[in-house]
TrEMBL record, chain B:
Gene3D superfamilies: Phenylacetic acid degradation B. InterPro entries: PaaB (IPR009359), PaaB_sf (IPR038693). It comes from the Bacteria. This is 1,2-phenylacetyl-CoA epoxidase subunit B. Pfam families: PaaB.
Length: 318, 96
């Protein structure tokens, strides 16, 4: 194809997206569109998979059966969400094995929030309430993104995600209304998860390298700073309602903007964690790689068994 | 990466209730058809989304190529006489 032809195809492609048409796997697409989508969708899938680890930590120690079944179901959903997203990603011609390999070798990133430790039961509440809350704000606009398989996966994910946030907030309500020690535990979890949750919505607009192209392709509908403001405005009253205090001395209602002003985010911490120096980066990757490697014999045995069954069937036919 | 054989890819179709068709809902990896069905149940019907599941190995699906959509689908575009609105009826005939 000549450069001229490619440019013309690209123009038609951008026009289709501008008209709100969806792009499907076998359609022509610019190489950059394909690459960007593989990157974002796999990063998203990896986050779901690694995101199971901090919560898996508390399944056996959940304080009641009710809490345990809910947490188990939430973690199972995260496995499911990872799988929807990996399969959507594979429609772009990348194999599951390549994707896993990128995660396990550190070539691909996942959400930095999962590199923080879950030290008390209240962290299960804070994660559901804040981390899933921030994730929902990020994800809802993606139900309308231009790549069909991604949009469809996100619709399923968003439908299932709202229970995650509610179960987390319910844990916080219970603790906040409990003994002084329990309330303190809830406050401590909020103190530790608040800032990382704000960072989850991405670097400030000035620092965000992908925003403009992503907006065009509807991989992004609102800027990181707008999403962050939305998250803060919706979460502060929820904290007030249960008597917990947001750990930000500069947080103040701005009557004129009808929004909260908030303090400076420690972006050095954010970049440190992204670069692999968070409290649990190594531990998370080690757990993930172990799970994959120790499962190898199971995968091989299942494949060998499937082949043996197939051979037997063919012999009977023959 | 190992050179061992990986679990193949399967496409999953779910009937949400009797009376409705099976609909494609995604794909997954499994060693064989029995495992594909079980995985499909766990991945795609955790909230009673289905009463019946079909799985088919992805390599068995033949798909049309969107680049040939012209030859493929255009013949239908100029056959307006296949639609009821092509026919003129007097206003007195209310429903037909």
């Amino acid at each position: 194809m000549s450069e001229e032809q490619i440019r013309s195809l690209e123009r038609q492609f951008e026009e289709r997206i501008a008209r709100d048409e969806k792009i499907e796997p076998k359609d022509w697409m610019p190489e950059k569109y394909r690459k960007t989508h593989i990157r974002q969708m796999s990063q998203h899938a990896h986050s779901e998979i690694v995101g199971m680890l901090p919560e898996g930590n508390w399944i056996t120690r959940a304080p009641s059966l009710r809490r345990k079944v809910a947490l188990l179901a939430k973690v199972q959903d995260e496995a499911g969400h990872g799988l929807y997203l990996y399969s959507a990603c594979e429609t772009l011609g990348v194999s599951r094995e390549e994707l896993y390999d990128q995660l396990h070798t550190g070539k691909a990133k996942y959400s930095s929030i999962f590199n923080y430790p879950t030290v008390t039961w209240a962290d299960m509440g804070a994660i559901g309430w804040l981390v899933d809350g921030a994730a929902i704000i990020n994800q809802v606009p993606l139900c309308n993104t231009s790549y069909g398989p991604y949009a469809r996966a996100m619709i399923r994910v968003c439908k299932e995600e709202s229970f995650h946030q509610r179960q987390g907030y319910e844990i916080m309500i219970k603790l906040a209304n409990g003994t002084p020690e329990q309330k303190e535990m809830a406050q401590d979890a909020l103190n530790r998860w608040w800032w990382p949750s704000l960072m989850m919505l991405g670097p400030t607009d000035a620092e965000s390298i992908h925003t403009e192209q992503s907006m065009k392709w509807k991989l992004k509908r609102k800027s990181n700073d707008d999403l962050r403001q939305q998250f803060i405005d919706q979460t502060v009253p929820q904290a007030d309602l249960i008597g917990l205090t947001i750990p930000d001395p500069d947080l103040k209602w701005n009557e004129e903007r009808q929004s909260y002003d908030f303090g400076e985010i420690n972006w050095d911490e954010f970049w440190q964690v992204v670069k692999g120096h968070g409290p649990c980066n190594k531990e998370r990757m080690k757990a993930r790689v172990n799970a994959w490697e120790e499962g190898e014999w199971v995968r091989d045995a299942a494949m060998a068994y499937a082949e043996k069954k197939q051979e037997r069937k063919q012999k009977q036919v023959g | 990466m190992s050179d061992k054989k990986n679990w193949p890819l399967w496409e999953v179709f779910v009937r949400s209730k009797n009376g409705l068709e099976h609909r494609h809902c995604g794909s997954l990896h499994a060693a064989d058809e029995d495992m594909a069905l079980e995985n499909a149940r766990d991945v795609y019907t955790r909230r009673s989304e289905g009463v019946s599941i079909w799985v088919v190995e992805s390599k068995h699906i033949t798909a049309s190529n969107p680049e040939n959509n012209g030859e493929m689908f255009e013949p239908a575009h100029d056959k307006v006489y296949r639609h009821p609105t092509f026919y003129d009826l007097p206003d007195e005939v209310k429903h037909m």
